[in-house]
Recover the amino acids of this structure.
């Protein structure tokens, strides 16, 4: 079986997307080709280039932005002494989606992972320390994954921030909203018990 | 929550891909952005444009090709009096993947669907009749979906081809290879019984 060269190439690049294998890539490519006359191929290509050209990281917090300082850093209605520390720029939008947070962000751009050779030097950590002093930060919320790397990074942050005059907290662990106890794993239930709140 | 404009645009276009909703589009977009420095965004955009520029439909059979006549039509080792009629260009590659077929193809570019206003005039049907006479076709294999539209189109083809001196067959219906009887639906089992072959 022989796809024309340019289709092969498109399939190769589509397969680099997360969770996209050969068959999904084929579905995407042939759907794009079938609707070629609607201009979808061109539009997607243009949208990709536009993102490439316009999006950069906010110089202050590291979130994705199309201006020098991001939407969040320039929003004067936000608390400027409260930072939410996240691993990736995507997490900023996830937290934002809750509509529960009205402070600023700091993106680490990764998590500690000694096995993969990712130590503190590659995290935007020194930048965080500099911000705490320069911007007079009072409170830091650590919003990292509940994984080995997330836990290691959270502990590292907690240690390093101990000498600073900031209040440090981490997102609560517990039962996901809407789930039933019988499907919650033991580890989560144990954390939910420890973290129980008066009711 | 406010994504920068160009990210919003990319998300909109990614969501036009089959089976891609808001969350998958976000996963794709942020993965592309996270690996921006590896040039993946540019490569994908270029691959899309290349496909747009290079791929057209074979003038003879309607399969996707980057030359005037396609890989299949120009392959002189194939039987030139045998046509496999398929609905879409993708199906050509699917049939080809079986390595069981060594004839030529004819792509209808659609199936009859009176409800959606797709009648015989939009199918590449007159082109098929012209080919049968011009190329002296002896045998036609109808390889269409086993759906309402596929069945309707297959019946229509059978009727129309009755006056021509060609042998017409349709792909066999039966138990999918590797499946167990208990999971096969009644309709399929009935067709498998009717189509039983000596063993």
């Amino acid at each position: 079986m022989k796809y024309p060269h340019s289709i092969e190439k498109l399939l190769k690049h589509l397969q680099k997307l997360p969770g996209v294998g050969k068959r999904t890539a084929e579905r995407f490519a042939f759907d794009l080709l079938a609707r070629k006359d609607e201009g979808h191929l061109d539009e997607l290509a243009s949208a990709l280039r536009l993102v490439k050209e316009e999006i950069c990281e906010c110089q202050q917090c590291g979130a994705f932005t199309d201006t020098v300082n991001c939407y969040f850093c320039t929003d004067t209605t936000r608390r400027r002494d409260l930072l939410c520390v996240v691993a990736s720029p995507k997490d900023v939008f996830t937290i934002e989606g809750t509509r529960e947070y009205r402070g600023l962000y700091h993106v680490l751009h990764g998590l500690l992972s000694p096995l993969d050779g990712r130590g503190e030097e590659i995290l935007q950590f020194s930048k965080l320390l500099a911000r705490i002093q320069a911007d007079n930060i009072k409170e830091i919320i650590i919003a990292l994954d509940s994984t080995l790397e997330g836990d290691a990074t959270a502990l590292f942050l907690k240690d390093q921030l101990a000498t600073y005059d900031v209040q440090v907290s981490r997102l609560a662990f517990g039962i996901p909203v809407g789930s039933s106890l019988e499907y919650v794993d033991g580890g989560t239930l144990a954390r939910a018990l420890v973290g129980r709140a008066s009711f």
